Amino acid sequence: MDALDQVAPAAAGLLDRVDGVLAHAGAPADHRIWPLLRRLGALPGAALSAVLSLRPAPPSFQGLIEEYADACTAVSVRGSWEGAGAEVFAAHQAALAGHLDGLTAKLSTTEAYGEAVAGWVRESRGAVARALVPLLGSAEAVTVLTEPVGLESAVAAAEIAAEVLAAVDEAYDRLEALMRDWDVELAELPYRPPEAGAPSIDSTTRIRL
Fold first, then answer.
1. Which CATH number fits domain 3-207: 1.10.287, 2.60.40, 3.40.50, 1.20.1260?
2. Nearest to 168 by CA among 16, 46, 17
């Protein structure tokens, strides 16, 4: 259990009220909440639920990495034959071994990316928790929870919502930056066959016994 888990029960009740006030009374036309609502497409209660659903669980591909490494070793074993056919086979063998080696590295990269995403989850959950804590005892919270729906409660609700959505928006920006940073390293690794063609029918292949 982290800080967000601890603060979430109290915050959920407040944000449910905030969502209701905004849905019925709206917010001032020039309030800073509007760009945040347009960008995120969610009221603060839904935004909190989305962040709460995130859990830092980095994947582990060690077993699969070992399987690919073993396959690469097996493919690299040279046969006991020589000649034109053996040369073409060796070219394909080297291409496949290189591809498997590249896939092994790609799995390690993907695992590192998963760890980076898990770090982003931890950071984002902490940031939202830090945004919520001062709001729970704020004058705006008292207004939203005790005053009837109207202009005063709408302004207070908009202030609370803007603080929460700003924290979520910053987390979203960090995620976009993280994805850009990893975009090239996570690109698909296509198999590239060798340029060697089939051996001619009049070529000789020798098998060593």
1. 1.20.1260
2. 46
